[in-house]
Design goal:
The complex is a heterodimer of chains A (322) and B (217).
Chain A: H1 17-20, H2 23-38, H3 40-44, H4 46-50, E1 66-67, H5 79-82, H6 98-101, E2 111-116, E3 122-125, H7 126-130, E4 136-143, E5 148-158, H8 159-166, E6 174-179, E7 199-203, H9 204-208, E8 213-218, E9 221-222, E10 232-234, E11 247-253, H10 260-264, E12 288-291, E13 298-299
Parallel strand pairs in A: 1-4, 2-11, 5-12
Antiparallel strand pairs in A: 2-3, 4-5, 5-8, 6-7, 6-11, 8-9, 8-10, 12-13
Chain B: H1 2-27, H2 35-64, H3 70-95, H4 100-109, H5 111-128, H6 132-138, H7 140-147, H8 149-164, H9 170-200, H10 206-215
Classes of the chains: A alpha+beta (322), B mainly alpha (217).
């Protein structure tokens, strides 16, 4: 489709640029282009120097949020950081990329399969799950195994609400969570960086602990895609990777599930992965963390400061069960 | 030598672009949620890229027969030291806040820190002896021998990168492949020189040797 007048001079008569630039200028231009190519990486994201990162709240509000006694009063990490700095390997291993790559991720229709050791296996619509209990705002600390942390006002309710309704059999000792596998939508799954689909797991008593959150929002709005929409779990006393995102299956089992990171590097990531300043990652210290937005590192707290979960692990050697 | 001066100016300015970009981003709120991580990764990346760049000068000048290119190598080498120092400083200052005890523990315990730190330490004598005076004092041959330490900086740098990533090895592998090609090229040149020396030895013993030395760089 052409809009506007055709050019007065036919394109065939336009002198090629290289010809009208004199030779010397052309060579200088070539040299500069060469230098630009050498520093190609530097120019590659020139665009993001000019275009500021996405800051607008884009998603629908969630009404009727109840306050939660579990919330911290610490300063919340800005929305723009929570939604632009994401470890979501299904999209990319670069933390700044999921925000863009997940933009068109389809979160509806979405179902979650409940199976394994339950009275009644069923497939639930995500909107039915979200309506199971009243939504709460829970402001949690969130500590990544890499040594950074954030404070996020999540929206959801205790995972136990769903588990009670799923009615697991007494034999069920563990819960396994599986993330969607859809390489068409999730470009990171076209690489073999991790074994897909992503799997996480909890012991039943951990999953039933009221702190364990079934989450579908943050900052009072529907969960942004890059943060694990439409449905994820949030386990504030464990390293971030335990909090599985974009969940499509919840399976109850008798045996301890094999979680993806443990499978990837069993010497480095265990099943429990509780935040623990006294047990280092084999390659780096876990004693301190950088709270995003702060210059100095702060000491990491046992169970990320959520001491109420300590009784779940009484008598366990947490150095062995890291 | 006009061509060399122009090239040197371009290379000098180009080598400052990564730093300029960081400064620009820092001043314009462009370093994202975790600026210190971005600074650490960027300075580390550029140290490695520049190591590979210096190592590619020799093959490049031989293959293209543009022997004057040797004139920019020392400057690029000094930029390796420059970005390596910045990288090291972000660790000492922004990561460990000059906590010597913590750092010593790290160097001893964390193998990726150990090798990264070694890679940096190996650069120090190279930077110190980068002047014309030192080339003269050491003599060309010894100087060259000393500056082959850069091979080890390259290897340790790639190992450092490989050992620090969580699961995504693609970038360290890319660097590793380029480094392997550049080092294998040298092994190839060395082997073929050895072979031709052997062939020539009975006919013309002395002059052939010194010629080989002159072209070795």
């Amino acid at each position: 489709m052409l809009i506007g007048k055709p050019p007065a001079i036919p394109s065939s008569e336009i002198t090629p640029k290289a010809t009208y630039l004199n030779r010397r200028n052309f060579l200088a231009g070539a040299a500069i282009a060469g230098a630009a190519a050498v520093t190609g990486v530097a120019f590659h994201d020139l665009a993001d120097l000019v275009a500021p990162a996405l800051t607008a709240h884009a998603n629908a509000k969630i009404d009727g949020l109840q306050k939660s006694g579990f919330s911290t009063t610490e300063k919340e990490t800005p929305y723009k950081d929570v939604t632009n700095y994401n470890n979501f390997y299904e999209f990319s291993t670069d933390k700044y990329e999921p925000a863009g790559l997940a933009k068109n991720f389809k979160t509806r229709p979405w179902t979650v399969t409940i199976d394994g050791l339950v009275k009644k296996k069923q497939v639930l619509d995500v909107d039915a799950i979200i309506k199971m209990a009243a939504p709460e705002e829970r402001i949690y600390r969130h500590r990544c195994v890499e040594g950074w942390s954030i404070v996020v006002p999540w929206v959801g309710f205790s995972l136990s609400e769903l588990i009670k309704r799923a009615d697991p059999l007494p034999k069920a000792k563990f819960v396994e969570f599986t993330t969607l596998y859809d390489p068409k939508q999730m470009p990171g799954q076209r690489t073999s960086v991790l074994k897909w689909p992503y799997v996480e797991g909890l012991r039943m008593d951990e999953a039933m602990h009221p702190l364990a959150l079934l989450c579908f929002g943050l900052y009072g709005e529907v969960l942004p895609n890059q943060d694990g929409a439409p449905l994820r779990i949030v386990l504030p006393w464990k390293y971030g990777f335990k909090s599985a995102k974009s969940i499509v299956r919840i399976r109850f089992t008798g045996d301890q599930p094999m979680n993806t990171w443990q499978q990837s590097a069993p010497g480095e990531y265990g099943f429990y992965s509780n935040v623990n300043p006294n047990v280092d990652h084999p390659r780096w210290s876990q004693a301190k963390e950088r709270r995003l937005g702060e210059f100095l590192k702060r000491p990491t707290l046992m169970f990320n400061g959520y001491d109420q979960v300590a009784s779940l692990y009484s008598g366990m050697d947490l150095k062995k069960n890291f | 030598m006009n061509r060399l001066r122009l090239t040197k100016t371009i290379v000098f300015l180009a080598a400052l672009v990564p730093l300029g970009r960081l400064v620009w981003k820092a001043l314009h709120d462009g370093l994202g949620a975790n600026p210190i991580e971005v600074i650490t990764h960027s300075t580390g990346d550029w140290t490695l890229i520049l190591v590979l760049t210096t190592l590619s000068i020799t093959p490049l000048r031989r293959i293209t027969r543009q022997y004057w290119l040797i004139g920019v190598r020392r400057m690029i080498g000094l930029f390796v030291f420059f970005y390596g120092t910045l990288h090291c400083l972000t660790y000492i200052w922004l990561d460990k806040f000059f906590d010597i005890h913590e750092m010593l523990k790290d160097v001893a315990k964390r193998r990726f820190i150990t090798v990264g730190f070694s890679a940096f330490v190996l650069l120090i004598p190279l930077a110190l002896t980068s002047t014309k005076g030192w080339i003269r004092r050491l003599g060309g041959k010894n100087w060259q021998r000393l500056h082959r330490l850069i091979y080890f900086t390259g290897i340790l740098g790639v190992v450092h990168y490989t050992w620090l990533v969580k699961a995504d090895l693609r970038k360290p592998i890319e660097y590793g492949i380029v480094l392997a090609i550049l080092l294998l090229y040298r092994v190839g040149v060395w082997a073929s020189e050895k072979a031709s020396e052997k062939r020539k030895q009975p006919a013309m013993p002395a002059p052939a040797r010194s010629r080989a030395e002159v072209t070795k760089a």
